[in-house]
Design brief:
2,3-Dihydroxybiphenyl 1,2-Dioxygenase, domain 1; 3-stranded mixed β-sheet; 12 strands; globular; binds 2-oxoadipic acid; binds nickel (II) ion; dioxygenase; dioxygenase activity; 2-oxoadipate dioxygenase/decarboxylase; oxidoreductase
């Protein structure tokens, strides 16, 4: 993919420099080995059935659907709802730090598709096969048995890789163009016969430095870094990307003739991860966003909401942390009090940040939008806003045939478990 090599190279360069400056600080949110290996990809599918199948493929790899993101509600609406497949356990994530942001097309969104287009789109989607029967059988067996023998594992990986690769099959040019007129995302999903990984994001320890360096190398990045502003102890997730570049693609004309064309469907993205937030912290972030918060515009307002310092963020109950008893606390004749804020202030416990492992709907919509021609995503001229069938977290779980994990529950459980261990260690009642 054009410019991908540069992105990975610059990310490695920045990470090496941040490590050299202060290895302990650089690794507060994960070992350099993990951060270097870490990637997230993204795919898009067209139907509930395709979503169920993709859930099966990822289940074979210990990756579970976490989170529900409704990008139809974004400031720049995109006709998809999404989840992310990832390991759930902290240990498994450390060993296998991979996620796949997965979106399914909302073919019933009347702002984009009229009834006739919806019908033709759904007919085409129903006819195609993204994942063959052997791949799905191997995936189901891997999930059930917790693995496959070497030969089957090789076959599984080979078939899965092929299912997510950009297809050499010619694209029906007229159909693609018709969809593209209402939504570039719809064209990318329903205008072709297969799915593909559209980006594969490395993790970087200083995203501002990366942004500047990519620009200096002549690669045009999107206007802004998405997510919270930089500076201070990092929270949640900051992301930026460069626009999809044209790649050669065979196109089939209405006369059946195949010619060389080009499509822009794969782009480069990079991310920096920070500390997860408690529900109270997340409410602050969402309110900041809703009030028009953007990294460029409202640094000052941000600083009122989020203290710069990680300990102050934790003491204010904004960040999800793992509470750890301090074993070498100097004796001062005082007894520990049964309150986490006091224990932190009095030096009985430390607060270790819990890495935010998920995504942000507004940022995701921003990444989607930055990769579409503005004219594409306007939807259908004169479209009414007839309510679409409900596509909420329950719909997603039903389509997948699997529970969708709520990210906040995972972060809350880590904090609660560590608080219980602290209470135990210090001989205190439950905290
Ligand atoms: C997914 C865009 C969102 C992220 O990291 O939030 C995304 C897509 O374009 O399919 O990748
Ligand atoms: Ni992404």
């Amino acid at each position: 993919m054009p410019a991908y090599g540069t992105l990975v190279e610059v990310a490695a360069e920045v990470n090496a420099e941040v490590m050299a400056a202060d290895p302990a600080a650089a690794q507060e949110l994960g070992s350099i080995e993990r951060v270097t290996a870490e990637r997230h990809g993204a795919i898009r599918v067209g139907t509930a059935e395709e979503l169920r199948q993709v859930g099966q493929v990822f289940a074979a790899l210990g990756m579970h659907p976490v989170g529900f993101y409704d990008l139809r509600e974004a400031a720049q609406p995109v006709p998809v709802v999404s989840t992310a497949f990832r390991p759930v356990d902290a240990d498994e994530l450390a060993a296998n730090p991979f996620r796949v942001f997965t979106s399914v097309l909302a073919t019933d969104d009347r702002r984009f598709f009229d009834a006739d287009l919806q019908r033709r789109l759904e007919e085409r989607l129903a006819r195609r096969e993204l994942f063959g029967p052997l791949l799905l059988r191997l995936a189901a067996r891997a999930e059930e048995a917790g693995g496959l023998d070497a030969e089957d594992a090789d076959a599984f990986v080979r078939l899965a890789v092929a299912a997510f690769a950009l297809s050499p099959e010619p694209v029906d040019a007229a159909w693609y163009a018709e969809l593209e007129r209402v939504s570039g995302v719809a064209a990318d999903i329903g205008g072709v016969g297969s799915t593909h990984v559209n980006h594969l994001t490395p993790r970087v320890l200083d995203i501002d430095a990366l942004y500047a360096r990519m620009t200096a190398r002549g690669i045009t990045m999107i206007d802004a870094i998405q997510g919270p502003p930089g500076g201070g102890a990092p929270v949640l997730l900051r992301q930026t990307s460069f626009r999809a570049l044209a790649e050669p693609r065979r196109m089939r004309g209405t006369d059946g003739a195949v010619s060389e064309g080009a499509l822009r469907v794969r782009f480069g993205e990079v991310e920096a991860r920070g500390c997860a937030l408690t529900p109270a912290g997340r409410a602050r972030y969402d309110a900041w966003l809703a009030a028009g918060g953007s990294p460029a515009a409202s640094g000052a307002r941000w600083r009122e909401l989020f203290p710069d310092d990680a300990a102050a963020q934790a003491a204010a109950g904004l960040t999800s942390v793992r509470w750890v008893p301090v074993t070498d606390r100097a004796r001062d004749g005082r007894a520990p009090e049964a309150d986490l804020g006091r224990l932190l202030a009095d030096g009985w416990v430390r607060a270790e940040p819990v890495v935010y492992e998920d995504f942000l709907p507004a940022s995701a919509a921003g990444i989607f939008a930055s990769n579409l021609d503005a004219a594409c995503e306007e939807g259908r001229a004169g479209a009414d806003d007839a309510p679409a069938a409900t596509r909420d977290a329950a719909w997603l779980a039903g389509a997948l045939g699997r529970d969708v994990v709520e990210p906040a529950d995972l972060y809350g459980a880590v904090s609660a478990r560590s608080a219980a261990e602290v209470a135990d260690a210090l001989g205190l009642p439950p905290l």
